[in-house]
Amino acid sequence: MKRSTAKLNRRIKRLLRKAIRVKYKGFTLVELLIVIVILGILAAIVISRFTGATKDAKETSLKANLSGMRSQVEIYRARSASDSYPTNLAALVNEGYIRKIPQDPFYKKSTEYTAIQAAGVGGWVYNNSTGAVYVDIPSTDPVEPPKDTSWGTSYSSW
């Protein structure tokens, strides 16, 4: 009996030593905080790189809209018997040259004006005597970011 008790005691001791050596599986609070800080830094870098992408996409869309409307105004003039420009942009829609007047991507307006508004409220400026189409966006006070003073200065020259 002594022999089996000694054997049992050795076995229990071995199991206890093994249990003591077993490490807890998981992360400590410090490890988790380090990972969260690293992810935060990476997110800040990525976000800062893509903030200008929205503005660039809107400008590209604006250029495409201006180009499309200007070309349709010229096609209208070439096909008209009187060799004149349409009276307004809505005439392009009524005659089937464009489906609808597009919205300017910055202000989401498809309003048409005959002169640039002092406040720059968005929409399109159309001169029916010259056929010129511009966008009514101020260079100093955009509705949507980025809010700097240089982003709209060249829009009238497009």
Top keywords for this entry?
158 residues; mainly alpha; 3-stranded mixed beta sheet
Number of strands: 3
| End-to-end CA span | 102 Å
- Average residue pLDDT: 78
List unreliable stretches of 5+ residues. Answer: 140-154
- Helical content, roughly? 40-55%
Question: Structural class of the secondary elements?
Answer: mainly alpha
Give me the side-by-side strand order of the main sheet: 1-2-3
Oligomer: single chain
Classify the beta-strand content into a percent band.
Answer: 5-15%
Major sheet summary line? 3 strands, mixed
List strands and helices in order, with pairings.
Blueprint: H1 2-21, H2 29-79, H3 89-94, E1 112-113, E2 124-127, E3 132-135
Task: Put the structure in a nutshell.
The protein is mainly alpha-helical. The chain has three helices and three strands, in the order αααβββ.
Q: What would your notes on this structure say?
A:
- The structure is a single chain.
- The chain is mainly α and 158 residues long.
- It has a domain at 57-158.
- It is built from three helices and three strands.
- It has a three-stranded mixed beta sheet, covered by helices on one side.
- β2 and β3 form a beta hairpin.
- It is rod-shaped and about 120 Å long.
- The model is unreliable at 140-154 (pLDDT under 50).
